[in-house]
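This part of the workshop introduces the protein records we will be handling. As an example, a complete record with its sequence and its structure tokens follows.
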Amino acid sequence: MSKIHSSAIVHPSAQIGKDVEIGAFSVIGEGVTLGDGVVLRNNVSVEFAKIGENTIISAGAVIGSEPQDLSYKGEKTGVIIGKNCQIREYVTVNRAAHEGNTIVGDNCLLMINSHVGHNTVLEDSVILANGVTLAGHVLVEYGAFLGGILVVHQNCKVGKMAIMSGFSGTRQDVPPFAKSESAPAVIAGMNTVGMKRRGFSQEDRNLIKEAYKLLFYSNLNTTQAIEKIEAELDCTNEHIMHLVDFVKTSKRGIIKAH
């Protein structure tokens, strides 16, 4: 049986799974699906959103509100949030502008007052610390960690397993496995600790280290460095392959080292 507080407002079209909890003064609007075991604390607002199983959304969060985009004209868009996420107090996740969905993957943690802009995609196991602000059309890949009070410009990518320090920001793409700092962000090494925790082998870490030396600590430009990586390193390795593809497909360019 679901537990819905008597003061909560639930739109008749909402689809509510098993064992859902909806707290006091929460508002569940049009176009909402809540998976089994979802918990909404008090004063949560949700509309045009699908929330995955066992996700917990804390007090004051606003999910699926209109995008902060002056060109938006009320198109039917939405938000998809995966399973086992923790959405903490006063987080905002805007629905997509024009078409599609803003997406948060499985097992993500969005800390207090973080903001996910329209059409942004967070892959699985992403962590946003307090006050992180992601503009529209941002991609944050698997396992990335973004420190507190950090800003990412629209249309930027933050790569797989990257870690960005607090009080920083970027107008360019942050490569996979990077450790970055400052505003604008610069490369400050590799996220070696994160890779170890995710089970990367010593061989994989050594390969990525060699690729980083060529990309950021040689006299080569980015194009030359990628050519040398492809010529000299094992590009059948999934991590090197991903790094090379990320750099090649970057539209805003990648951040550089100190």
